[in-house]
Each structure stands twice: as structure tokens, then as C-alpha cells.
Amino acid sequence: MQHTAESPILVIGATGRHGGTGATVVDCLLRRGHSVRALIRTDDERAGELRRRGAETVVGDLHDRGSLVPAFDRVRAVYFTYPVAPGIIPAAANVASVLSKHASAAHLVVMSMAVSALDSPSKLGQAQAVAEDIFIWAGLNPTVLRFAGLFHENIAVLHQRTIQRDAVIANSFGGCAAPWISGDDAAEIAAAHLLTPRPDSPRISYPPPAEAISHTELARIISATAGRPVRYEHISAAAWQRQLELAAESEHPVNVGMAQHIAAVGAALSGRSKPLVAPDPSALAAMLDRPPASVADFIRRNHSHFATDRT
């Protein structure tokens, strides 16, 4: 079906918690006056908030092809992001199938990661690469944004509990200068791509990180902001993965797939003298029309997450 300039842009992952890029994409598009449709799995308070902000919502499950068809009706562009969790390959297959049949001319923009590769040390990185291949094999000519930085939001997701309880950040990154970018900045870049014409061939890019900061330096920044000493401790990938797996058994937002992913990425980066892609804040500023957010900005805005746990 043909789309027009008034056709909606579909945002998948608008109620996601990790990084929260989908919600930011929705807000960016609404601010610019575009019609936005959000795919939601459950019609809950988060979905209600999307409607209050001006988005249309459609209930669907990425692992149930039939449920996706109404969401793709007449769309002119689609933002695809998937949780840092297993399951992206069947989800991508369903999206590719529905897009090919119901909105084959739509511009598909994929939120990806620099470690998306068939030989990635991360199982999720391998699965991400296969998902991207599915979109390409389907002839959808996606724009794939393999962001080459850890999202600032990872700091709270992965380390908030141990910072609050033990005043320690423990992981497998070692002394390497880890690459960082704000999830909101990544989402703004994705939103801008959604408003461009679909490319004539698949387009894969590696937007750079804003800065490279070791976890030792990160601990210093948190210490200065929180007003108490926080230290960094290097542990093996296996030890960190096990810690995260144990946390995943509770109500922690980490899952088993994420545990393997981030522990493996940390170990891989720990052996490098520099990031996979060099930081380039000037390039990001050109994309964003403003300076990119820094890790220190994130810590200052979220200082309460790193206060002492008094429970």
C-alpha cells in the first residue's frame, strides 16, 4: 500500500526500559508535527502516557506475526529496536514478513550496536547481525545504526545496586577507556533518519561515541557527585556474568542474555588500547545540532540513583 507524507511513522519499542530510545523517538517525531503510531505489547500506564502525548497505540507482539498487521497499515517509516535480550531473530523475521507484504516502501531504521557481527563474542551481537541480514534479504534496504558506545543508562541498569550498597563498580571492562553515548542522543539521531527517504540499498553506519571514559574515571565522577567514595573493581567476565545472572533471578532489569552480552563485550574491550570507533563529539554535534550529552551530565541528572542504600 502506498504511503503519503501524512502516513504514520511506526515506533517499535516505545515502552522499552533499557535505554528508552523508543519513547524518545516518539517525542522527537511528535515535536516535529509527525503522526506517530506506537506498537505496544500491553495496554498499560506507559501506553496511556504515549496516547496522552499524542501518539496512536496498537497492541501487538513481535513474536506473533498476525498481531502485527494492523500496526503496519499505511506506515511510511518504521523504527525497530529490540530489548537487550534473546528473541530478536524471530521478531525480525515477523517484522520483515509483514513489512514486505503491507508496507514494502517504508523506510526501516534499525537501532543496533557496534558488536553486531556473526562472529561477535556476544551471543546477542550475533543474533542482532542475523536479524539485520533478514531485513536485507527481504529487500527492505534498512538504515542500520550500529552505535559504537555504551548507553549512559547502562550505568544505573548494571551498577546502581552495588554502588548504593557497596560503593563499588565491578565488571570485566578493566582499565580500558570505554565508549559512551546518551541513549537520548542515539534516539534523536534515529528519529532524524526516519524522516529521510528510504535508501536505494542497505545503509549500515557506526555513529561514534561522544567520549571514552574508563570505569575507574566513572567511579571518580560518581564519587564527586554523590559526595562519598566509589571505587572500581576489575573482575573476570565469568564472575561478572554470574553476578548478573543471579541478579536476573530477582526483579532486576538484567536478563540472562544481557548478562552474557555485556560481560563478553567488557572482556573484549578490556584487551583493547582504544575503542572500536574513536569518539567524535563534533560529528555527533553536527547530527544533533547541539553538543552531545556527557557521562558527567548523566550522573548529575541522576545522582539520586547512586546515593547510599539506607534500606
TrEMBL record:
<protein>
    <recommendedName>
        <fullName>NmrA-like domain-containing protein</fullName>
    </recommendedName>
</protein>
<dbReference type="InterPro" id="IPR051604">
    <property type="entry name" value="Ergot_Alk_Oxidoreductase"/>
</dbReference>
<dbReference type="InterPro" id="IPR036291">
    <property type="entry name" value="NAD(P)-bd_dom_sf"/>
</dbReference>
<dbReference type="InterPro" id="IPR008030">
    <property type="entry name" value="NmrA-like"/>
</dbReference>
<feature type="domain" description="NmrA-like">
    <location>
        <begin position="7"/>
        <end position="83"/>
    </location>
</feature>
<dbReference type="Pfam" id="PF05368">
    <property type="entry name" value="NmrA"/>
</dbReference>
